[in-house]
Amino acid sequence: MRRRKQPVDAYLDAVVRDRRPPRFPAADDEARAMLAAAALKAGQPGADSPDPRFVEKLESRLRKAMEAPGAADAGAVRLSRRRLLGGAAAAAAAAVGVGVGVDRLVGDHGDTTVSTGSTAELVPSHGHWVDVAAVADVVVGRPLRFSAGAMEGYLVNHGDHLQAVSAICTHMPCTLNYNDTHELLDCPCHDAWFGLDGVPVGSSYPYALRPLPTMRTRVVDGRVHVLTA
Amino acid sequence: MEHSPSVSPDLRVVGDPAGWEEVYREHVGPVYRYVYARTGNRADSEDLTAQAFLRALPRLRLHASVGEIRSYLMTTARSVLAEHWTLRYGADVGLLGEEVASPEPEPERQDSDSGVRRAARVLAALPDHYRRILELRFLRGYSVKEAAGEMGITVTNAKVLQHRALRRAALEKLW
Does A62 sit within 8 Å of B57, measured CB to CB? Predict the structure, then answer.
């Protein structure tokens, strides 16, 4: 049966076990079935009641947000659907290790995913290699933040290759946070999101942001080195 | 913002420090249940509920009726959900429009039994073997293998049956 290894099955198993399901590009009929499964799961008595500890924690988070002077409004996000889907699909493909470089993949789609073509690479003219992490610590789905000389970045394990992307938003120089719900790098200053490959997937700006620059990496004796200034 | 017929004429000041806490405590359950019925798991429901309140509450510095506040919170939860389905699954926005996003969420129906009632209504409309597999899986937490054993069918057949049953359930008015 062709269905056996479908990611939709992993989604359904996650719902049954009340775990966070994996990310994958779902066809419309799959998405409908997934929504039906979620609605049925909510019919399990007690399943859809919030945990009191969560309710309490969120209240203190909200208090901080509400009491901060000039509490910024995180809303008003506009998403370009085409860029969003391009980015999400590329990131998902990279995450399952299809064995195609991300730049290549994006290029093959050939459209609006990246406005400026492929991602720029930062190669300092008098650079040196800096040891930033053990390879074993860079796991799929959990980008590792590093600082190396002038470079601030995230090491990303794409399954079939490692990548070092800048941690600095290409709009204003704010440091991006990793958002594990959506597996994206989020800008805390304004609304801008980047895929783990550095491709911008959405923002509140009417124009496309530049992709995050990448840095050269090498692996020596189980350690990851980044070429920095 | 549309007024539902049940809008209360009571006004309250949300900018008042005590005001948002009251709004939060009153609505966190309904918002969470609304989100849970469209994600089916706790981790995502907690994240998306948090996003909805973090996004909506700072904007509620208005004299607003209870109905308007509910409606605004639910609308925000709905757009957070639509973003989630798009970012996580590349789900078609049109699909979400029909089935998650479009019908005005009815906060007064998001009471603590709403999920149970809706699931029961959908299951009641299904043929026996479809209802059975979905009950075992999603209400009783059986693995595919366990459900197959219980029903006396092969694992492969249980999987196929589950997919067919879900496709059929999706035709019911779940949302």
Answer: yes
Q: How many residues does chain A have?
A: 229
Scanning B4-63 for CB atoms below 8 A from A yields 17, 20-21, 24-25, 28-29, 32-33, 36-50, 53-59
A42 touches chain B (CB under 8 A): yes
B58 with A26: Cβ contact below 8 A: no
| Partner B, chain A 179-198, Cβ-Cβ below 8 Å | 181-182, 184
Least confident of A10-24, A190-204, B35-49, B83-97: B83-97
pLDDT in the model for residue B110: 55
Tell me if chain A has a CB within 8 Å of the CB of B90.
Answer: yes
CATH code for the part of the protein at B118-171: 1.10.10.10
CA A42 to each of CA A86, A206, B32, B35, B136: distance values in angstroms, whole numbers, following the listed order? 31, 38, 11, 10, 14
Q: Which of A71, A100, A125 is the last residue of a domain?
A: A71
Same domain for A21 and A94? no
Same domain, A39 and A117: no
Residues A92-149: tens digit of each pLDDT: 433 333 322 223 222 233 332 333 334 577 777 777 888 999 988 898 888 999 988 7
Residue A76 lies in a domain: no
d(CA A159, CA A96): 7
Give the pLDDT mean for A4-9.
78
Q: What is the ipTM of this complex?
A: 0.84
Closest Cα of chain A to B10: distance in Å?
23
pTM of the model: 0.58
**Helices B66-89 and B17-36 meet at what angle, rounded to 10?**
50
Contact call for A47 and B36, based on CB within 8 A: yes
Interchain contact B170–A (C-beta under 8 A): yes
Token pair of B62, please? 């208005």
B103 CB-near residues (< 8 Å, 6+ apart): B175
A18 touches chain B (CB under 8 A): yes
Of residues A85 and A101, more confidence is placed in A85
